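Appendix B, Record 12. Input sequence as logged:
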Amino acid sequence: MPRSLPGAATWKSPHLGVFAVGGERIRRLVQSEEEVTKVSRESVITQEGLEKLKEEIEHLSTTKRREVAERIKEAREFGDIAENAEYDDAKNEQALLEQRIALLEERLRRATVINDKDVDTTEVGVGTTVHVKDQKSGDSQKFQIVGSAEADPTLQKLSNESPIGKALMGKKRGNVVSVDVPRGPKRKLKITKIEAA
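Logged structural output:
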């Protein structure tokens, strides 16, 4: 159950949880134990992912913060801020931005970087690229196994915590794994090659 700040107005975002606003202070209130676990556990990240994370934090902390501050300043010039929708919108954007920055900084603090040189290619792990062949269709696919923070299925980057990633983790070349899929029967994938990403 979310906590509230004394004298603070609250609103709920479907993606980010419950927020409370008190004057200039904006705070994110954790909505579930699952969110605490997700942020507090150590995250595994590749060197490439670490660089992208740092770049995003830098962009949000500098350029984006300035843009939002400028929007707030412009909205204040429209007059009475008590009934100013533009001001409210800009303040809400500021709250979401600060939340995103805090989440990324926490992820950065807890990140364990996988060094490309230390990746063991005898078994599937974070930082490896694994080639698999679907035993039913005969289709071959290649996936890079990454930490959950870097996952992007459109780029064939699968989280070590995803159903396919979990099934492949720790397996060796020639192993066949069964993967539960949302629709249809389990997929059987044979590992044909493991290489460093």
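Residues 1-40 have pLDDT under 50 and may be disordered.
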